[in-house]
Each structure stands twice: as C-alpha cells, then as structure tokens.
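SAMPLE LOG
Freezer: B-3
Tube label: C17
Construct: single chain, 287 aa
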Amino acid sequence: MTEPVPTKSTQEYPGQHKDLDPQPDLLKFRDGREHVGTGKLLNKRSIITGGDSGIGKAAAIMFAREGSDVVITCFHQELPDAEHTKDLIEKEGRKCHIFVADLSYSETCTNLVQFAVEKMGGIDVLVNNVAYQKLAETIEDISDEQWDHTFKTNIYSFFWITKAALKHMKPGSAIVNAASINAYVGRPDLSDYTSTKGAVVSFTRALSNQYASRGIRANAVAAGPIYTPLVHSTFPSEMIEVSNQVPMGRMGQPSEVASCYLFLACSDGGYITGQTIHPNGGTVVNG
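STRUCTURE (predicted):
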C-alpha cells in the first residue's frame, strides 16, 4: 500500500489529484484488497459535489462500481481531474456527468440539481462533499470575505443543494454530508472552516428528524487527516507531518472515507440516520 509522504512544497489551492506522489488509494485498502462491487447502488443516481479529487473522487468511483450513475462537480481549474474521474467511472460501465461551477451561489446549486435530474432522471443519493479551507492563525486574520466564502461553500451550498434535491428524492433515498474532525476538536487555525463543519453536524441532525418519517436518511462523515489535494494545497509540509500524529500514526486514504459514504448511502446503513461516522485514525471525540 502507498504511504502518504508530505511533498516538499505544497500545491496551489485547490490542488490536483494528478500531482500527488504517491497517488492516493481510491479503491484499495490497507490489506491490499480492492473494493469489489456487489450492486449495493445498482441503478441508483447520485450527486457528489467535489467529485474531481480526494474523498469525492474515491466515492464517485466506488459508487459507480456499486452500480450508480453519478453527477460530480468541480471548479474550472479542476476539470482535468474531473475528466479522469469520469473516465474511471465509465470503465465501471456507468455514466458520469460533470457540472463545472462555484457552488457558493444559490442559483448555481439549484442549477446543479436541475442538471442532475435532466441527465439522470432523478436523484437517489446526495453527497454534499465540497469544501473550502484556508489557514488563519486567529480570527483576527480572517477577513469578512473569507468568512463569508467559507460558509457559502461549506454549509450554504449543502442547504441550497439539499433543499432543491429533496423535491426529487423518494423514500429510500439518502443524504451524506461531509463534516470534519475539526468540528469536534476545534482546530484553532481553521476557525471558519471548523465552524462550518459544526454547522454541518447540526444541519444533518435536524434534517434527519425532518425526513425520517418520509423514508429519507441523512448522516454525516467527520473525517480526520486524509491524503488529498485539498490538504496539500492548504498546509505546509511540516504541518501535514503533525497531522499524522493520530493514534494510528498515519493519514487516511480517500478509499477509507469513501467506504463510509457508501455504507451510509446504501441499504447497509438503512437503520442509521442523524448520525456521524468518524474515520479519523483513532482520535476519540465522543460525538
């Protein structure tokens, strides 16, 4: 298995999958095996925001291997990575549609849902995965513009997309929201990002209570340090090394979080709603 080694120089935001060396594990696991599809999402239709790289990329490919067609989103500069994701999904025999946009705008989020319905005919699984983060030592270093953009990307988009998507989701559908370990440990140099991830947890709990009676589940995944382009475009290498200091002593791989997304999206997680899974390398957060 590949072991993430911090690069000597970080990437420019938002980072590129193709530039990571070694390449992240998208379908492989620590024991050397590769994810084997068993039809857990056969003929389902999924939206995965931020599906061009990192955890979203791994989830999109894993969902396709389980039988789902997928709509993924990316920024314009991430299109090469998104095209790579599409190629891998099509090799699994499923369809992939790319929506290029900045999801920090309400109209764009509504347009995404309409695009997905037009391309796939409906929505069975929604994975709100897109995120923005930028280091700031204290809140005094965070501009109003940064605070606003972080919230619009990391929680407003979840609200806007979910609100539009629920009109097309039937009983048995599932929503998976990307939270973060930072919502539980209160990372001081990402206070705006951390705040949005706390909002994601609360949003997920409220959403689950609203829609459980209608047969739609909503859960969250609060990942710890994961080997992704976002990490390498946000942190200097010495900080990445510190982030490896979890009980398991290593960063996680995208595949190890994507499998959590899959569990919550399919019927294996059919009796789970309003909960948060913590793939974080062993940090106990009691949340």
